[in-house]
Amino acid sequence: MSSAPTPPTTAPDRRQRQQQVVQALAAVLPPTGLLWQDEAVTPYECDGLSAYRQRPLAVALPETPEQVGAVLRACHALQVPVVARGGGTGLSGGALPHALGVTLSLARLSQVLRIDPVARLAVVQCGVRNLAISEAAALHGLYYAPDPSSQIACTIGGNVAENAGGVHCLKYGLTVHNVLRVRGFTIAGELLDLGGEHLDAVGPDLLAAFIGSEGLLGVVTEVTVRLLPRPPLARCLLASFDDVARAGDAVAAIIAAGLIPAGLEMMDRAMTAVVEDFVKAGYDLDAEAILLVESDGTPDEVAEEIERLSEVLRAAGATRLACSEDEAQRLRFWSGRKNAFPATGRISPDYLCMDASIPRRALATMLTAIAELSRTHGLRCVNVFHAGDGNMHPLILFDAQQPDELRRAEAFGNDILRAAVALGGSITGEHGVGAEKLDAMCVQFTDDERTQMHAFKAAFDPQGLLNPGKLVPMLARCGELRPGPGGAMGQSPALQAALAELPRF
Ligand SMILES: Cc1cc2nc3c(=O)[nH]c(=O)nc-3n(C[C@H](O)[C@H](O)[C@H](O)COP(=O)(O)OP(=O)(O)OC[C@H]3O[C@@H](n4cnc5c(N)ncnc54)[C@H](O)[C@@H]3O)c2cc1C
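Above: inputs. Below: predicted complex with flavin-adenine dinucleotide.
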């Protein structure tokens, strides 16, 4: 961020800085809690966005919240940047190390501290994996609703930092709607305690502001989450459409009918073929788009909702409709959607997973723009969406070994984000801005808005030591992108051509 310290730049400077940092951290961590040799820190050099890599000076692996506080105080005293890291599954480079900073891995803070079935909440350390919360709560017939597809590996601390979403978030809300309290530390090692076990805390809602702040405001060590009773039954409808626009309209029609399904996901024809080849979920390979629509509740509630959903889908032009007959079939239907990313890894050496949100009514328009951009940039793209909340994940396929393909993939991705903004949407739905989408932040927000964001960050971290260079771009960076006052802010000719053909809302 704006006031990040000027780092030493030469190799001897770096070594000297590393020695200082290692000495200070060794004094506050157990012997197995500090890594600094090149081969030891290499596994931490990237997150899920593996196109960007950087080795940190050192990796700290504290085992207790007290050690986290001590690491932060030591780094603060030395004015060393700190990048928190949970499971390292982030897709926007949020946990990408700082070349002259410390990566603070929180994976060892992995205890479920308390499950309270009466108050329906769980208190867990930040390194607990998302799925492990539901596994611990299952004994009481409860679960934690937000379910990112990475839930087997991502941590609740990372979910808080990214305000993670998932299939069930349309009905049950994002991380921000399911977290009651976070505890942790500021960069100076002072205790942070936001929210409480009750529904609303006193004063301004700093908890909500903290959730989604991508590790820039403080380091979370403990999270209190809301638990829900596991619904007795869930069934999934699989609907085929011979036209993407009709599938998009069906999504809008479901919501307009007052129905909020437990999941409402969409895949285009190309993505359906890729996942069907991998998991054999039983998808219709002739469809231009398929929808997965889930209903949960008591058997009576589910029966009624499935009937109403089927009516709406038929009226919207579904060409085929199948409903899961048992739990095994329901899981098979979902297995394709849940495996969309690994299935894509089978057909392309590399892919960039974009994350943008658009108004539901613009789904088909956006797909048309992506198809046009795919032709112009000369790269393939497959599409999967959390359609219910307009959150798209176009996966741009490329080969980093081929000259120029990474750069073209990035340009294609930037055009998709700009198209989302042009259609009234946003440059991120759930994966965050991180290091990846800094330029797109210049398109989404004005200089005044970004200045306010820098000021908010500075209230927690005046020296800009926590995760510097992420989330909010420097004003100068945006200035360089803008072609002129009131200009198109970096819209490429490819995007301008694609947008010129599209209807406006
Ligand atoms: C296959 C796959 C599928 C995915 N599906 C989804 C999905 O459906 N929905 C979704 O929302 N995301 C999804 N993601 C993205 C990713 O899993 C989420 O963003 C997740 O919340 C990251 O958690 P993490 O523990 O891995 O965090 P990391 O990647 O380690 O870190 C992410 C950010 O959080 C910060 N951070 C981590 N821990 C802390 C802490 N304790 N205190 C303060 N800051 C911290 C880091 O500095 C960084 O900025 C997916 C990723 C993959 C690889």
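The radius of gyration is 23 Å.
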